Amino acid sequence: MVKAAVGNSCSGNEVIGLLLIQRGDEVNIIEEVLIAAARSGKEVIAVLLKQGGAKVKIIKEVVKAAVQSRKEVMALLLEQRVEEVLIAAVQSGKEVIAVLLK
To answer: Is 2 helix (H, G, I), strand (E, B) or coil?
Structure first.
């Protein structure tokens, strides 16, 4: 369901917002949504960061997905959550850190 919501370009942002509102207290759903969104693109991550607020934590799996995705996803994460991204990058290993240094 999460991957379908993220992949749906027109209403995907709205569906993701509803997922966060309806199930936002469940950490696993937030992590799953974030990982899928990091693979999807900048727009979806932007919505998640805005709507999810403090519930949205940038974990190493999200950073890894962003590194494998597009540069603009990582740029947005660094712009809005630099400290969390750096911590997650260190936890992810030297490959992720090397990408960040570029």
So the answer is: helix
Q: Which residue has the tokens 């597009």?
A: 70
Sign of CA dihedral 81, 87, 89, 92: negative
Domain encompassing residue 32: 2-101
pLDDT single digits (tens) 13-54: 566 565 555 554 555 567 887 888 888 888 888 888 887 777
- Nearest alpha carbon to residue 27 among 7, 49, 47, 52: 52
- Please tell me whether the overall predicted TM-score, pTM, comes out greater than 0.85 for this model: no
Domain count, the chain: 1
String of DSSP letters for 8-67:
-TTTHHHHHHHHHHHHTT-HHHHHHHHHHHHHH-HHHHHHHHHHHGGG----HHHHHHHH
